[in-house]
Amino acid sequence: MKADPAAQKTVLTLAEVDAEIGRLDHQRRTLAELRELTEAEQVARDARDAVVRAETRAADLDRDIARIERDVDGVRARTQRDEQLLAGSGIGAKQATELQSELETLARRRGVLEDEQLGIMEEREAVGIELDHARTELTKADAAVTDVTGRKDTAEADLDASRAGRDRARAELVSTLGTAADLLADYERIRAKGRVGAGALRESRCGACRLELDRTFLSQVRGRAADEVVHCEECGAILVRVA
Questions:
Q1: Which CATH class is domain 29-164?
Q2: Which helix (H) or strand (E) holds 197?
Q3: Alpha-carbon distance 64 to 57, whole Å?
């Protein structure tokens, strides 16, 4: 294949632009903010789970407290009724004894309920403190996610802007290679295999694979016409001879 030396140098410039695009894509995929965001989101999820657990436990305890209060109110009402009956006239000794016995039972029951209620209220207070702490941690975690997301978006926007500039430069170079379609096709074929498409021959080293080339091969390359397209014997890239 033959191609104007100027077109070959354009392909070399194209390879440099493609390398820059590759670096930008790699930077975007490996942004430190992406890892930070993943970690921050996990912390936020854990904090949210802690809030839900504490809220659930608090709600359970509130229901228990309400239940005991209803039971205490019931015991209190029954006690008040029995006391009124006992203080009233017209009851016999047997009924008075039964009422007195029931009052003693109610008093014991009320004591048990109030002790249980006190224990649950103390636990509810501790859970309340835990819930406040969990909510504070969740607020911090959400703020961290927002901060990292903002920094990630800014970094991605900067890289995208740089990538757009490199894409425009690439399109311009490809356009100038319109008269060297075969050379461009050869370059793209090499790139499609995941390799560097072109590299400069500087002294005895290929700019694409960075390897030292065989002296015999170098002699053959230097003996060829300037418009003859040659490829690196090591990596297959288009080898552009430069001054």
A1: mainly alpha
A2: none
A3: 11
In one-letter notation, the amino acid at residue 29 is R
Tell me, what amino acid is at 44? A
CA distances from 211 to 120, 122, 204 (A): 77, 75, 8
pLDDT in tens, 161-195: 999 999 999 999 999 998 899 999 999 999 999 99
Tokens of 37: 């965001």
SS3 241: strand
Q: Where are the domains of the chain?
A: 5-24+178-241, 29-164
Tokens of 85: 């009956």
Whole-number Cα distances in Å, 168 to 14, 105, 186, 197: 11, 91, 21, 19
In the chain, what's the furthest Cα-to-Cα distance?
A: 136
How far apart (Å, rounded) are the C-alpha atoms in residues 65 and 75? 15
